């Protein structure tokens, strides 16, 4: 592990007591006294994201999340005023929504201001003709979906973290959900955005995407993880709640045949809402715990939905035929229905990991020409990266498919790591580095939908190359010359 990797997790900077006092007073004049918190009260109330990095540092009393002041605005005007103040004082600002991230992006590791956007949680406009909605960033995804469902509508963005994740956080981290194979990742949902820049300027981007008036600026901020601007509203696409969901489940002899079936489905124009392939370990040791169906090998779960029952049946039948033509054996559709009903159980006890475990997901993505090599290289690299004495378990599935490729989602668990913080970080970083290098070498991209944060920042240059990372840093410096937004994140410095 390099010094750069270690330093990536270190808290530094921060404000003096005098600066905190004066800054707090100015922030109170903007948002009100009750919306500003400082010191330990602030840090305990807003403890950082859900990443292992955050948890392990806090466990050892060396938190990487150390905001000096937490401010909770309720309007875009207040966000603008907060950023103008931070710009004037050259004070670090870290925005946060639901704090459900797993990469460490929402940690205020440089101190300064934590900009809590949870109270900006209103639907500003619902257009039932265009089926679009303008929503504020602090709206929790599950709450948003429930409000839309009551009107017969759906956001169709169903991340596993839906009960914690905010809409703004999903956009900032370029997230995904279980329905992405049909409806796309979050970037495919976003039509436009309102953004507050580091100096406090408010930009309202054109309300439709892919227009002919220059570069698509909205997508510049999607996936930027708060490093370029603060998203204060997004205009998103909606769909009607489907009239029907039809499930199919198949058992394949090997992973290669399941990937080939998935490839043929995608390149033929079929679009199941769900297509999840679990390798043998994931099927027997993870999915089986939820569905209790006696799974014993590579398993695919398919779900087709839509607005027209006849079309759903035709599309599902065609998907089924492709699977059978590739050597699959049909299992009971009830397995798929059970998975759908219990799909969020994986993220609660007793399934969710907790200390003293070390955990991570190393999702990576590639085109169909490289997807099998990506799976083989990354899973082998993970297994070989640490001493077998640590009893690493690895369960991998492919859950997001595109018309050009797919992704792998390896879940890494080490039952108990070293008792020393530095040694635990070294063990964690060894498999993160191995997986990242293997993904790039296999022709893949090191992350599909969890973002970069602190975990992958040291590896971004390997992905972009020297010229690419220089371009990224030039964009950052042009928009944020003082580097006050999320300083040090995403390899921006």
Compact description:
It contains 17 helices and 19 strands.
What does this protein look like?
The protein has about 500 residues and is α+β, with helices and mostly antiparallel strands. The chain folds into four domains: about 5-115 and about 475-490, 2-Layer Sandwich (Uridine Diphospho-n-acetylenolpyruvylglucosamine Reductase, domain 2), CATH 3.30.43.10; about 125-240, Uridine Diphospho-n-acetylenolpyruvylglucosamine Reductase, domain 3 (2-Layer Sandwich); about 245-345, 2-Layer Sandwich (Alpha-Beta Plaits), CATH 3.30.70; about 360-455, GMP Synthetase, Chain A, domain 3 (2-Layer Sandwich), CATH 3.30.300. Helix content is about 35%, strand content about 20%. It contains 17 helices and 19 strands. The chain has helices at about 5, 15-30, 40-45, 50-60, 75-90, 140-150, 165-170, 180-185, 185-190, 220, 255-265, 280-290, 310-325, 335-340, 370-385, 420-440, 460-480; strands at about 35-40, 70, 95, 115, 125, 130-135, 155, 190-195, 200-205, 230-235, 240, 245-250, 275-280, 300-305, 330, 360, 365, 395-400, 405-415. Strands 12, 13, 14, 15, 16, 17, 18 and 19 form an eight-stranded antiparallel β-sheet that branches. Strands 5-6-10-8-9 form a five-stranded antiparallel β-sheet. A hairpin with a 6-residue loop joins strand 18 and strand 19. Helix 2 (about 15-30) packs antiparallel against helix 5. The longest helix is centred in the last third of the chain and has 21 residues, at about 420-440. The radius of gyration is 22 Å and the shape is globular.
């Amino acid at each position: 592990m390099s010094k750069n990797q270690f330093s990536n997790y270190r808290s530094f900077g921060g404000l003096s007591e005098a600066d905190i006092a004066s800054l707090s007073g100015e922030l109170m004049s903007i948002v009100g006294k009750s919306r500003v918190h400082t010191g330990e009260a602030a840090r305990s109330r807003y403890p950082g994201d859900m990443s292992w990095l955050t948890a392990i540092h806090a466990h050892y009393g060396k938190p990487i999340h150390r905001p000096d002041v937490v401010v909770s605005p309720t309007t875009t005007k207040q966000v603008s005023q907060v950023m103008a103040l931070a710009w004037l004082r050259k004070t670090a600002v870290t925005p946060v929504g639901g704090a459900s991230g797993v990469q460490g992006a929402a940690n205020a590791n440089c101190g300064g201001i934590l900009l809590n956007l949870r109270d900006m949680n209103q639907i500003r406009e619902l257009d039932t003709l265009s089926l679009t909605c303008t929503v504020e960033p602090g709206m929790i995804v599950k709450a948003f979906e429930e409000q839309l469902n009551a009107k017969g509508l759906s956001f169709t963005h169903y991340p596993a973290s839906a009960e914690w994740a905010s809409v703004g956080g999903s956009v900032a981290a370029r997230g995904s959900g279980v329905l992405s194979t049909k409806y796309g990742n979050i970037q495919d949902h976003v039509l436009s955005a309102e953004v507050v820049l580091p100096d406090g300027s408010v930009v309202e981007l054109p309300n439709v995407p892919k227009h002919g008036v220059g570069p698509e600026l909205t997508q510049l901020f999607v996936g930027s993880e708060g490093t370029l601007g603060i998203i204060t509203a997004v205009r998103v696409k909606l769909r009607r709640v489907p009239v029907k969901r039809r499930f199919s489940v198949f058992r394949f002899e090997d992973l290669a045949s399941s990937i080939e079936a998935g490839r043929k489905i995608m390149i033929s124009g079929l679009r199941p809402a769900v297509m999840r392939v679990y390798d043998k370990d994931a099927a027997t040791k993870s999915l089986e715990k939820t569905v209790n169906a006696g799974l014993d090998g590579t398993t695919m779960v398919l779900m087709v939905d839509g607005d027209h029952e006849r079309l759903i049946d035709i599309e599902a039948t065609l998907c089924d035929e492709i699977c059978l033509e590739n050597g699959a054996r049909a299992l009971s559709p009830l397995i798929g229905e059970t998975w759908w009903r219990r799909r969020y159980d994986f993220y609660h006890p007793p399934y969710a990991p907790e200390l003293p475990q070390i955990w991570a997901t190393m999702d990576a993505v590639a085109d169909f020409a490289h997807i099998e090599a990506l799976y083989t290289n990354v899973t082998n690299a993970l297994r070989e990266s640490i001493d077998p004495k640590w009893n690493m378990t690895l369960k991998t599935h492919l859950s997001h498919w595109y018309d050009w490729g797919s992704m792998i989602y390896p879940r890494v668990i080490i039952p108990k790591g070293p008792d020393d913080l530095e040694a635990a970080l070294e063990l964690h970083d060894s498999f993160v580095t191995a997986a990242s290098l293997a993904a790039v070498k296999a022709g893949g991209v090191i992350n599909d939908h969890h973002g970069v944060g602190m975990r992958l920042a040291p590896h971004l240059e390997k992905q972009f190359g020297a010229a690419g990372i220089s371009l990224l840093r030039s964009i950052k410096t042009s928009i944020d010359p003082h580097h006050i937004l999320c300083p040090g994140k995403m390899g921006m410095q």
